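To the wet lab folks,

You asked to see what we're planning to order before we commit. Fair enough. Below is the target structure as tokens, and below that is the sequence we designed to fit it. If anything looks off to you, flag it before the synthesis order goes out.
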């Protein structure tokens, strides 16, 4: 009887054995990321870690996100005149990318701080009357540039079990929009309409209807071909199903209601701005668990890519944001694209987006790749996660839950990086969207996070050791 062979090396050798009629089990083994061996050993032996990771995953999976209100940002998150939130880890104007600068300039015009976008440059360069802060620092998320000013309206999501809340602005649509760094008069006019008409209408509808169960809609939309990052068509239509009757019965001007329904119905990405805060609400529940290696945020500001981890508090681990590889609009090409930007990778952090591409094979027409690539990506992400989410299942994979809970130690041990699908903003302020594609975080941020986890592990061990 021929003994079975396990191959962990070059596939050519495994094939040679198989050709001799010997049973071969191929193992996709990779060496750990360089320089992480000692830290991996330390974290792996941490007696706190298994229970901490199990608790982080349990807390995350236990959250239910309900849409309970729509408010201006100055009420929702306490933004004051001259304060702006943005996507990604902290950054100053002098390091800000083109699309982030463009969105801030447009936001300053919207708030009446300046009359023209050109005047806004001097305002931000001086920095005396403005303040920048990451959305994540105020329990919020923002797509692409993620710029939020006090007068912008925001969705308010709440977990009924804990009362915890998260927030996100209303989605403008695609193309030349503020979140992609555009600031033309048409962009500002649309934002003013959203503030004057759409926001108050949605507030009336949400307050008069039963709370919208965003978590449940996310589960349904995965069965209908969405992955909740770059494909939200079914989710948007289900939101209209839930809020449409309340909008019509609101007593508001019929033309305003019709315009609002047409705007939301014609914007397939509208639900993204509910998916993102729902994911943040779930992941925030896992924050502050000593010993946990689970990633609770992945975010980009167009210059830096940052992650936060359950066991390391609010510390950011950053590296240079990468340019996505994908499909371009019109005559745009790679030279026109800014490095990756936005808080929307919170969807991947929760197991959606690039992690759930197997649920949405049509997404490859928007971001590139192929259907087999999409299936393989979801399978591959299982190798770097702590578990799966039974609420959000993948039909084509026998209804298995999406891979959930990115584990810093597994990323470092396998070298597999989280897969993100994303829109691409033009690198020049004012251009807007230039394409969409696939991107991964910079490799070095995971060893940085692992080193900090190992440092904390050694500190706990030293504290337990008798003097």
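Sequence we intend to order:
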């Amino acid at each position: 009887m021929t003994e079975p062979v396990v191959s962990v090396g070059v596939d050519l050798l495994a094939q040679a054995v198989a050709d001799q009629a010997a049973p071969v089990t191929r193992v996709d083994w990779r060496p750990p990321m360089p320089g992480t061996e000692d830290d991996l050993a330390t974290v792996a032996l941490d007696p706190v870690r298994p229970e901490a990771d199990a608790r982080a995953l349990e807390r995350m999976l236990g959250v239910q996100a309900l849409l309970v209100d729509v408010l201006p940002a100055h009420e929702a998150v306490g933004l004051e005149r001259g304060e702006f939130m943005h996507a990604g880890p902290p950054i100053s104007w002098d390091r800000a990318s083109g699309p982030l600068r463009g969105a801030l300039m447009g936001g300053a015009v919207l708030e009446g701080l300046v009359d023209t976008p050109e005047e806004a440059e001097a305002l931000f360069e001086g920095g005396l009357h403005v303040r920048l802060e990451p959305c994540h620092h105020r329990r919020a998320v923002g797509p692409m540039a993620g710029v939020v000013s006090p007068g912008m309206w925001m969705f308010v999501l709440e977990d009924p079990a804990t009362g915890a809340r998260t927030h996100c602005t209303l989605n403008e649509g695609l193309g030349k929009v503020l979140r992609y760094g555009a600031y033309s008069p048409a962009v500002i006019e649309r934002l003013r309409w959203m503030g004057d008409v759409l926001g108050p209408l949605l507030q009336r509808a949400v307050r008069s209807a039963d709370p919208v169960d965003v978590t449940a809609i996310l589960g349904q939309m995965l069965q209908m071909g969405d992955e909740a990052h770059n494909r939200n068509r079914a989710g948007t239509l289900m939101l209209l199903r839930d809020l449409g009757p309340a909008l019509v019965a609101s007593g508001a001007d019929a033309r305003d209601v019709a315009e609002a329904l047409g705007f939301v119905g014609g914007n397939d990405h509208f639900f993204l701005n509910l998916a993102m805060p729902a994911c943040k609400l779930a992941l925030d529940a896992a924050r502050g668990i000593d010993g946990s290696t689970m990633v609770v945020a992945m975010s980009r500001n167009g210059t830096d890519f940052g992650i936060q981890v359950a066991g390391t508090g609010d510390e950011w681990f950053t590296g240079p944001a990468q340019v996505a590889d994908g499909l371009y609009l019109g005559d745009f090409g790679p030279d026109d694209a800014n490095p990756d930007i936005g808080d929307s990778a919170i969807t991947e952090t929760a197991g959606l987006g690039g992690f759930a591409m197997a649920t949405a094979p049509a997404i490859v027409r928007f971001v590139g790749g192929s259907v087999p690539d999409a299936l393989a990506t979801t399978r591959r992400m299982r190798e770097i996660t702590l578990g799966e989410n039974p609420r959000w299942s993948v039909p084509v994979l026998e209804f298995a839950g999406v891979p959930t809970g990115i584990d810093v130690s597994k990323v470092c041990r396998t070298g597999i990086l989280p897969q993100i699908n994303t829109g691409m903003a033009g690198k020049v302020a004012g251009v807007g969207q230039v394409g969409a594609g696939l991107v991964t975080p910079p490799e070095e941020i995971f060893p940085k996070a692992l080193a900090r986890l190992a440092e904390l592990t050694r500190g706990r061990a030293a504290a337990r050791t008798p003097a």
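Structural context that might help your review: The first strand starts at residue 5 and ends at 7. Residues 37-54+287-464 form a domain with the v583 fold fold (CATH 3.90.1700.10).

Thanks,
Computational group
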